[in-house]
Amino acid sequence: TKDWNGIDQVVLRVPRGASARVSLHGGQVISWRNERGEELLFSSSKAIFKPPKAMRGGIPICFPQFGNCGSLEQHGFARNKMWSIDDDPPPLNTNDGSERVSVNLLLKPSEDDLKCWPHCFEFRLKISLAMDGDLTMISRVRNINGKPYTFSFAYHTYLSVSDISEVRIEGLETLDYLDNLVQRERFTEQGDAVTFESEVDRIYLGSPNVIAVLDHEKKRTFVIRKEGLPDVVVWNPWEKKSKSMVDLGDDEYKQMLCVDGAVIEKPITLKPGEEWTGLLELSAVPSTYCSDH
Ligand code: TA6
Fold first, then answer.
1. Which of 103, 180, 260, 272 is most buried by a 10 A CB count?
2. How far is the CA of 284 from the centre of ligand 1 (A)?
3. DSSP bridge partners of 176
4. How far from each other are the two terminal CA atoms of the chain, in whole angstroms?
5. DSSP 80
6. pTM score, two decimals?
7. Which residues are annotated as a binding site for substrate?
8. Which positions does UniProt annotate for substrate binding (predicted)?
């Protein structure tokens, strides 16, 4: 379909008239709605929609580099590329058989890409919407018989929350994290949950495969299940940083929280013919969480 900018989008809808749907622009999920048609991902009201530049929000794919401590642009080039529909995806052995609608996308390096990152890769991305509205993303990166190469990766997931000061993350307690606000110095999480009173920009290391993000006002819990993604990025820019971002409304930091399944501390190295898989499953369930504020 074409959207308001006349930009090609893929929209996945569950059959039988329910309102659950996922919209994609290139390899970026830009909208995920539940069966009541509620939007579950954050999109900035000031997003700059200049394809293929990633818009601020949804779930941009950070590949082959997370952050800016490498030779490539911030978060790598994959999120700024137009992907193609993959008509003939190789079979996946992770399909649990449950009924879902899916689209398969493919990204291969262009001549330009090979100039800045000279590695032969095929990146296959399968995005699925289950009947109950759960969103699954499966990334498969294969080294197509080039020399070995190393990459880092993240599903840069902007969750929509009602009020960041009433949100808590469970599942990261006692973990070590690298704090991007102090040159990635290493700390250990002391709290019984991660809560938010100021800017947070951390990479939690060696996390469990299930993380919960509890939104008090909406009485909603995001359950994040992941495989092959040992690290979790947690980011909220808060007020001061937001004001310096042209593509984020001044107060919008209150309605967003990035919780990214990622591989950063120990990047992946693929030998010729090897393949890496990173699976992320998001669900949004009603919760009776009441903040202790
Ligand atoms: O940790 C997440 C992060 O690296 C933050 O430092 C912030 O830069 C965020 O990603 C957004 O990056 P972007 O390039 O999308 O503005």
1. 260
2. 24
3. 188
4. 45
5. G
6. 0.94
7. 56, 74, 79
8. 56, 74, 79
